[in-house]
Amino acid sequence: LSADKMLSKFYEILSASLSQRDVASIEKGMLAITVRFKDNSEVQLLPAIRSDKVIKIPDSSGTGWNETNPRIFQQQLTKQNERLNGALVPTIKLVKSLISDLPKQQRLTGYHIEALALDAAKGYQSLMTPKALLSHVLDHAVMRSRKPISDISGQSRNVDDYLGEPNSTQRKLVSQAIAGIKRRLDAATSIAQWKAMFGGIEK
């Protein structure tokens, strides 16, 4: 069964089974189904098939299938987290908390943040603490967010295609927003100021 035919079948099933009381719209794109709910939340559903240990998702044409390895990213993240004495995962949580306060057009996806942090962690040899690593990840993200990051899992070409081409206007806005966060973090002179930036999350 081709990817586009499976997507159409997927759309038919969702249209027939989801409650119209909660759903505002169901739209079929080239690769995925977008479900918008009346509470303004939105979910994108991507069809996938498993063949032995290989998971396939629609390719960029929307008709064929692309092999993916979703576990490879998690494996690399786990490896780097262990190398950094468990500091990487808490650092990612801190970055996500900081990014969540940005205007919607400047926010990064969770997967993009994880990819930026993983990229920044490679070769890092300084202090193995979330605070030190957080500073390094943010500095790295200011520049790295201006260029696409390849998706090693194969689920897409890049983890950040939604930001457009290298040095696009959207990428520059994101880079500037992250730089602003880093400046405010560096300027914090008390524990209270530090905590305020993370919505009260314990550091």
Write up what this structure looks like.
With 203 residues, the chain is an alpha+beta fold. Helix content is 46%, strand content 13%. The chain contains seven helices and six strands; from the N terminus they run αββββββαααααα. It has helices at 3-17, 71-83, 88-99, 110-121, 130-144, 169-187, 191-197, and strands at 23-28, 33-37, 42-45, 49-51, 54-58, 65-68. The chain has a three-stranded antiparallel beta sheet with strand order 1-2-3, covered by helices on one side. The chain has a three-stranded antiparallel beta sheet with strand order 4-5-6, with no helix packed on it. A hairpin with a 2-residue loop joins strand 4 (49-51) and strand 5. The longest helix is centred in the C-terminal third of the chain and has 19 residues, at 169-187. The model has no long low-confidence stretch (mean pLDDT 88).
What is the strand and helix layout of this fold?
Layout: H1 3-17, E1 23-28, E2 33-37, E3 42-45, E4 49-51, E5 54-58, E6 65-68, H2 71-83, H3 88-99, H4 110-121, H5 130-144, H6 169-187, H7 191-197
Antiparallel strand pairs: 1-2, 2-3, 4-5, 5-6
Helix pairs in contact: 2-4, 3-4, 3-5, 4-5, 5-6
In what order do the strands lie side by side in the largest sheet?
1-2-3
Task: Give the overall pLDDT as a whole number.
Answer: 88
Low-confidence stretches: none
The fraction of residues assigned to DSSP E strands is: 5-15%
Number of E-type strands: 6
Order of SSEs: HEEEEEEHHHHHH
The helix count comes to: 7
Q: Outline, from the CA principal axes?
A: globular
What structural category do the secondary elements indicate?
alpha+beta
